[in-house]
Design a protein that fits this description.
The protein has 155 residues and is α+β, with helices and mostly antiparallel strands. Helices cover 25% and strands 21% of the residues. The strands form two sheets. The chain has a four-stranded antiparallel β-sheet, with no helix packed on it. A three-stranded antiparallel β-sheet has the order 4-5-6, with no helix packed on it. Strand 1 and strand 2 form a beta hairpin.
Length: 155
């Protein structure tokens, strides 16, 4: 009976921690969550997602981003804003608010979501700014597909 109570309490704490990422203790909770592999991919043990970042400092247009993701093979795709929020930690001291397992300082990433570019009657794709702590985390904005931003893939 005591074990059942402990399991219930721990699972409640983990669920609460996942929904409240601004708590400082999450840094310790996150340790070991992300594992880097020799091919440059980062595996998230909590979500089961695998991430790959385009070469450090390299940016791409939307078309170039799509081609790069397709070159990674089956199952890889550009992430959604919701997927990117899973690797966004506002308490991080890194500019991009990502775990150190991600070997990049880039903080604006293409997503596969579409949106109209403000001030232009052009349909573009959304870019997530991982550098901001406000607006509920990792806000997105629509960008022209000819603009250049960092690329991260997920599967």
């Amino acid at each position: 009976k005591l074990i059942m109570i402990l399991v219930l309490v721990l699972s409640t704490m983990v669920a609460w921690a996942a929904e409240n990422p601004t708590q400082s203790y999450l840094k310790e909770f996150r340790e070991g969550r992300f594992v880097s592999s020799s091919d440059g991919a980062v595996f998230d043990r909590q979500t089961g997602l695998k991430w790959m970042v385009m070469d450090k400092g390299e940016t791409a247009t939307y078309a170039e981003a799509v081609r790069w993701v397709e070159s990674l093979g089956e199952g890889w795709k550009l992430p959604t804003r919701r997927e990117l929020k899973k690797i966004w930690f506002p308490e991080s001291e890194r500019k991009n608010k990502m775990d150190k397992a991600f070997k990049t300082e880039d903080y604006r990433f293409w997503t596969r979501q579409r949106g109209y570019v403000p001030g232009h009657a052009v349909l573009g794709n959304k870019v997530v700014n991982m550098n901001l702590r406000k607006y509920g985390g990792a806000p997105a904005f629509a960008a022209r597909r000819s603009d250049r931003y960092a690329v991260i893939a997920v599967r």
